[in-house]
Amino acid sequence: MTPAAGPRAVVAVDIALCTVRDGALHVLVGQTRTGPFAGWWTLPGGLVRRDETLDDAAARELSAQTGIRDVYLEQLYTFGHPARDPQGRVVSVAYVGLVPPERLDDVRAGDKYAQVAWRPVADLPALAYDHASVVATAVERLRGKVAYTNLVYALLPPAFTLGELQSMYEAVLGRTLDRRNFRKKLLSLGLLKPLGRTRRGPHRPAALYGFRRRRPMVVEIL
After folding, report:
1. pLDDT for res 200
2. Which pick of 44, 63, 124, 204 has the fewest CB atoms within 10 Å?
3. What was the pLDDT predicted at 2?
4. Strand partners, 97
5. CATH level 3 topology of 148-211
6. pLDDT of 6 above 80
7. Which helix (H) or strand (E) holds 203?
8. Helix axis angle, 162-173 relative to 179-188, nearest 10°?
C-alpha cells in the first residue's frame, strides 16, 4: 500500500483470513511484489477509498487480492502505531475472516502478490508491517469466540459428522477436547439438527448433522 502524500494519516484494512487445513488453523498470506517489503509475506489488504465503508473495503480487497468473496468477516482491532508502515502514517483496521476448507481452491493471487499461500498460524514466515500481531490478535479472538458462540459454522459445510465438528473445534483451539463431554454439550444446546443421513467412516457409518441457524449466535459451548 502507498499512503497519500501529506501529514495526515490514511486508513487501510488488513484481513486475517483463517481456515482449518490438515487439522490445524491456517491463515492466508501473500508474497508482495513491490514496496519496502518486496518479497516479504503480508496479510491481504489495502487502502480504504473515500467513498466506501470499512466493511466494503475489506471485502473488496479480499476479493481483488485473493479471489475469495462472500465469507464471514468481522472487524478485529485497529492498529495505529506511527512506525507501523515505513512509507507514511497508516492506520489499519484489521479484520478476521473464516473460509471453509472446501473453498481453498478458490484462492488466487491478485496483482499485489507473486503468490498466496495458506500457512499454519503456529509456523508463520516473517510477516511485514505489524501483521504478526494482527494474526496473533485474530487467533486469540477466534479461540475466545468459539467458546461462547456458534461461529465454527463458518468453517463447516451444510452437512457434517460430530467427529468432524469436534475436529474443527480442536483445530481452532489448538487442544484436544473430551469426546463424550463435547458431544453431550453440543447436542444439549439445540444448535444442531440431525439430517437423517449417514456418511461411511473407517469403522461404521456416522450420522450427519447441520446447524439450525448459520448466523452468529451467543451460546455457551465450552
Report:
1. 83
2. 204
3. 53
4. 17, 73
5. Arc Repressor Mutant, subunit A (1.10.10)
6. no
7. none
8. 110
Q: How many residues does the chain have?
A: 222
Q: What is the pLDDT of residue 204?
A: 83
The predicted-structure confidence for 70-120, as pLDDT tens digits, reads as follows: 999 999 999 999 989 888 899 999 999 999 999 988 899 999 999 999 999
Please report the sign of the dihedral spanned by the C-alpha atoms of residue 88, residue 27, residue 187, residue 213.
positive
Q: Please tell me the number of Cα atoms within 13 Å of 81 on its side-chain side.
A: 9
CA–CA distance from 212 to each of 35, 40, 189 (Å)?
A: 47, 42, 11
Nine cell digits for residue 183: 458431544
| Long-range CB contacts (within 8 A, 24+) of 103-106 | 103/68, 103/71, 104/19, 104/21, 106/67, 106/68
What ranges do the domains of the chain cover?
Answer: 10-134, 148-211
Q: How far apart are CA 92 and CA 80, in angstroms?
A: 6
7 pLDDT higher than 80: no
Tell me the HSE value of 177 on the side-chain side, using a 13 A CA sphere.
24
Residue type, 121: V
DSSP bridge partners of 21 = 24
- Which SS3 state, helix, strand or coil, does residue 169 take? helix
- SS3 assignment, position 84: coil
DSSP for residue 155: G
pLDDT (tens digit per residue) in 131-153 = 999 999 999 999 999 999 999 99
114 contacts: CB under 8 Å, gap ≥ 6: 30, 31, 32, 33
Return mean pLDDT, the chain: 93
Rounded to an integer, what distance in angstroms lies between the CA atom of residue 211 and that of residue 195?
10
